[in-house]
Amino acid sequence: MKPKTLIFDLDGTLVDSSPDIIASFQETLKAQGHSEPPYAEVKRLIGRPLREMYACYAEEEQLDSLIAAYREHYPKHFVDNSSLYPNVLELLEALKMRGFACVVATTKASMMAKPFCDALGLSPFLNHVQGTDDFPAKPAPDVIFKALEAIKGEGIWMVGDTTHDIEAGRAAGLDTYAVTWGTHDAATLQTAQPTVVKNDLLSLLELLKS
Fold it and tell me: Which domains does the chain have, with CATH numbers?
């Protein structure tokens, strides 16, 4: 029997990682001669592939160099100021005890996402960490399907903080749980028609009882 599986976005959903993502993004742009973009402006881009983020500030021929610099800089600093959102471990532990499987489906590359989850203590509660590796990023559902395939799971909920997460979850045929503390606010999230919008994670446990 396939385990009933909840799929979680990572940045902005389980982890408040924006300070370290933004710092690395700004630093790599500055190091290659670009102006430092405003913090709030970069934050609105989090959740998109790095190429799309850098394309807002640099020419196409500069993107590969910027992405390579980010991938060198960020892992050295990715837990400087990042932290779990409230009740994350409590939720994942409760889900595990109830027999649910939990996977991460993130726009981060797997080679970066897995050590990041290790460093923050998430890995013991996760059945799999799936990054976006050479296939379309959310809102395409590919990363969700890859995560479910890895554990032969039956997806039931997608939990995320952006319209891209919600659209990907809907495209994968899942119920969608939007959290309001990440990249997109409640009004923006509603445009993607999530099943529910919440400002906490533990309400998910109640939904799983129904």
Answer: 4-16+83-207 (3.40.50.1000), 18-76 (1.10.150.240)
